[in-house]
Structure to design on (156 residues):
């Protein structure tokens, strides 16, 4: 199912602003600054969340999984949009594919290029915004906390 709400730059950036707020909150809590939002087919915010691996001592709480959980059970995820400040890792890309989320908006993919190309190859509409604020958040975090970052992406 395609998403009924057209995705123009203004809409994508307004949704990304929610994810960026979550990323900033996560950073302020001492966590990895990745935020996400799940948006319904009608453009309504269903859930928002942030990476809480450090804060909750739970390796499964990535930004995307947090937003997904906050959205609660939906009859279907067809037509929904996952918005994330960073290209999703394989774990979160699997979530998008498993539940049939139709569209993915990525804040940036320069600091980490996860599974967004794979999702596009499997029918998910993908938009990478290359947002400077998202890139700056991650660049600074990676430089200041390389050990936490390596752990987060499974390289340690």
């Amino acid at each position: 199912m395609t998403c009924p709400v057209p995705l123009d730059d203004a809409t994508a950036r307004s949704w990304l602003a929610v994810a960026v707020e979550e990323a900033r909150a996560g950073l302020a809590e001492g966590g990895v600054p990745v935020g996400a939002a799940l948006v319904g087919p009608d453009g309504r915010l269903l859930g928002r969340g942030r990476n809480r691996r450090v804060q909750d001592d739970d390796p499964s709480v990535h930004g995307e999984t947090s937003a997904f959980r906050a959205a609660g059970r939906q009859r279907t995820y067809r037509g929904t949009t996952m918005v994330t400040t960073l290209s999703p890792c394989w774990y979160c890309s699997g979530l998008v594919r498993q539940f049939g989320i139709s569209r993915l908006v990525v804040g940036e993919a320069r600091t980490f290029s996860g599974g967004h190309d794979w999702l596009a190859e499997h029918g998910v509409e993908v938009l990478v915004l290359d947002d400077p604020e998202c890139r700056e958040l991650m660049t600074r975090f990676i430089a200041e906390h390389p050990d936490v970052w390596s752990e987060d992406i499974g390289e340690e």
